């Protein structure tokens, strides 16, 4: 075996090593930020030439530790004196050593048929529900399409077919039906344009060679599809959800993405994205809303038009279409856990405003719904985005977002507010329902990481209590006042969402296939289930959870397969945990002033729907926020709740026997 030899090139390189940087720079070179060519303890060439003393100082070895670890040490040092007197560890500390929170799994990835992985981001309610799941089943929207025949997804024929159109007057009613749910919070089609295009569709057959003609027919058929979906609002046969046949025909008229962009094209793509989401094809919806948003950007809708000759109505149409596409994109991305496509720093266009001859309420709803969508985008970026977080940055993000939500509510105009003295027997206007549900959902999404952390701590304390280590601890113990305030507001927001949904359901105003209603109902129910399985029992929260599950059950019974799976999972989770014993502090005692607990609950619910005060102090100790990151992580790659549930007494037996 021949001995290895150094290649000639390597030997030649050694002759230049005398100029390499010194492993330890002298103090003068370090101050001057220049390369040090010395070799300790001999002086470097720079100091020698300048006649300066060359001093090498041996620097202390540095190590990197997470900020949360440093903050925890500081917090422990401050509280060491108080804990010495106790002599006993807290129940949460004891249980934390006994409960294994780590749970092996695929985390964000869901395996669907046939062997295809799908990604669910951390802000997705489905992602959180899978962590609560006490069984091995996976809740994935891809497994529950509302129509399983995929032949309509294939390339359409060269000559598009026209379905049997409804009577002209009935077509107008279909427009009004979809407008009540979509047109009040998005502006993809105004009434004047609809009537013009409707007359064109009924007057002459489509010209397949004319792109704009195809777009008009496509848009009108999409309006019919939405109108029938919302007016019938339940499954009626084997041909898909109501109005689905109109949607299939509409796709035949949809031009390819390689066609030139236009405002009409952007409107149609946004409609298609929305419908794809309603039939639970979220990946397709994500792709289409991406096309719509990029087409809007290419048309410059995200910037104010410099042309002073442009008509006021046309200028406002551009603004409303931009913010509608923007708002829908934010909703689709954050609820599915995907990154948003454009930063607010790149947008420079005015918010929707009223034009002459228009009801100002219309623009007010659009503007305030859009402002909430902007906050929702910040929630996805600042809280759930996959990046290195610290306790300081997380606390600042959450506190700033909660402050923005409070400011949003404070400036909400009277025409968009819930009327506190309105007749409870009369239905709430649908645009008010949509706006308030959006608001409460933003609170839910902001507080969710803190709630998960509090649930983890409380379940650990409950496990310690079951082991005989003492009385059940209050979940607020050990949490800073701002964290407690945020969690309390999130729980109250979930109760208010449930109350509004329940009131709307009495008048058939909850969209069975409307993805926004379904997502917000599921999110509120999920939060209330988490609270009821971990926190001490409160009648107010338990009643709200039951109502939330009833709303989901109603949507499931009307044909929404995905909500049916969500409802079944939440029932399993809520049944897997017995209510914690009511502590002394509860609403069971008579409230000050002699009011009963039921009256107090009604007053609190009414106050919650009128105002959401956030009394937060940004100067609180951030060590608890660092614990949030350490315990659950914003990427939540540990199924700690699932493991805790599996360890509960009797749950494992039920799961193994298949009784769950």
From TrEMBL:
Cite the Zn(2)-C6 fungal-type domain residue spans from the record. Answer: 25-56
Region (Disordered) location: 581-617
Bias type Low complexity, positions: 598-611
Q: Which Gene3D superfamilies match?
A: Zn(2)-C6 fungal-type DNA-binding domain
Short name of one Pfam family for this protein?
A: Fungal_trans
Q: Which molecular function GO terms apply here?
A: DNA binding; DNA-binding transcription factor activity, RNA polymerase II-specific; zinc ion binding
Name the GO terms of the biological process aspect: DNA-templated transcription
What PANTHER family has UniProt attached to this entry?
A: PROLINE UTILIZATION TRANS-ACTIVATOR, REGULATORY PROTEIN GAL4
Q: This protein is called what?
A: Zn(2)-C6 fungal-type domain-containing protein
For this protein's source organism, the top of the classification is: Eukaryota, Fungi, Dikarya, Ascomycota, Pezizomycotina
């Amino acid at each position: 075996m021949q001995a290895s030899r150094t290649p000639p090139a390597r030997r030649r390189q050694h002759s230049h090593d005398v100029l390499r940087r010194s492993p330890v720079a002298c103090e003068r070179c370090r101050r001057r930020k220049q390369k040090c060519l010395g070799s300790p303890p001999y002086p470097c060439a720079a100091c020698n030439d300048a006649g300066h003393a060359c001093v090498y100082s041996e620097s202390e070895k540095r190590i990197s530790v997470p900020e949360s670890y440093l903050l925890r040490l500081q917090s422990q040092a401050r509280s060491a004196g108080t804990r010495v007197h106790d002599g006993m560890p807290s129940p949460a500390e004891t249980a934390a050593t006994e409960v294994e929170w780590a749970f092996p799994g695929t985390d964000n990835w869901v395996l669907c048929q046939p062997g295809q992985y799908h990604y669910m981001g951390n802000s997705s309610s489905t992602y959180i529900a899978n962590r609560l799941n006490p069984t091995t089943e996976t809740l994935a929207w891809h497994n529950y399409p509302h129509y399983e025949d995929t032949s309509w997804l294939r390339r359409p024929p060269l000559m598009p077919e026209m379905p049997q159109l409804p009577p002209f007057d009935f077509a107008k009613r279909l427009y009004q039906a979809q407008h009540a749910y979509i047109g009040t919070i998005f502006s993809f089609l105004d009434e004047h344009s609809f009537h013009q295009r409707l007359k064109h569709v009924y007057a002459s057959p489509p010209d397949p060679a004319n792109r704009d003609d195809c777009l008009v027919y496509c848009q009108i058929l999409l309006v019919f599809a939405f109108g029938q979906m919302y007016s019938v609002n339940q499954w009626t046969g084997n041909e898909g959800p109501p109005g689905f046949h109109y949607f299939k025909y509409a796709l035949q008229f949809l031009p390819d993405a390689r066609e030139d962009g236009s405002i009409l094209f952007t409107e149609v793509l946004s409609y298609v994205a929305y419908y794809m989401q309603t039939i639970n094809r979220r990946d397709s919806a994500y792709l289409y809303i991406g096309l719509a948003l990029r087409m809007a950007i290419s048309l410059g809708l995200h910037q104010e038009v410099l042309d002073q000759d442009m008509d006021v109505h046309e200028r406002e149409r551009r603004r409303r279409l931009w913010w509608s596409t923007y708002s829908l994109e934010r909703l689709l991305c954050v609820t599915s856990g995907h990154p948003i496509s454009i930063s607010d720093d790149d947008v420079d266009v005015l918010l929707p405003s009223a034009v002459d001859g228009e009801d100002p309420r219309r623009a007010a709803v659009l503007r305030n719904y859009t402002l909430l969508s902007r906050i929702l985008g910040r929630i996805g970026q600042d809280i759930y985005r996959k990046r290195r977080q610290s306790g300081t940055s997380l606390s600042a993000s959450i506190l700033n977002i909660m402050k923005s939500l409070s400011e949003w509510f404070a400036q909400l105009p009277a025409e968009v507010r819930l009327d506190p003295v309105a007749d409870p027997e009369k239905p709430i206007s649908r645009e008010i329902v949509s706006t308030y549900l959006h608001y409460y959902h933003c609170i839910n999404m902001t507080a969710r990481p803190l709630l998960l952390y509090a649930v983890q701590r409380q379940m650990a304390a409950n496990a310690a209590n079951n082991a005989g280590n003492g009385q059940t601890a209050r979940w607020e113990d050990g949490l800073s006042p701002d964290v407690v305030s945020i969690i309390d507001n999130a729980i109250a927001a979930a109760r208010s969402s449930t109350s509004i949904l329940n009131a709307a359901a009495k008048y058939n105003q909850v969209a069975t296939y409307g993805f926004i209603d379904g997502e917000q109902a599921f999110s509120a129910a999920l939060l209330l289930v988490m609270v009821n399985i971990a926190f001490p029992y409160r009648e107010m929260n338990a009643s709200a959870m039951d109502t939330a599950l009833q709303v989901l059950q109603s949507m499931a019974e009307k044909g929404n397969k995905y909500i049916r799976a969500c409802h079944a999972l939440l029932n399993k989770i809520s049944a897997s945990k017995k209510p914690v014993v009511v502590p002394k502090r509860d609403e069971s005692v008579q409230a000050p002033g002699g009011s009963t607990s039921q009256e107090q609950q009604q007053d609190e619910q009414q106050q919650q729907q009128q105002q959401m005060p956030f009394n937060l102090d940004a100067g609180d100790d951030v060590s608890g926020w660092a614990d949030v990151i350490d315990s659950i992580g914003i990427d939540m790659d540990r199924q700690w709740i699932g493991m805790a549930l599996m360890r509960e007494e009797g749950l494992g037996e039920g799961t193994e026997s298949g009784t769950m």
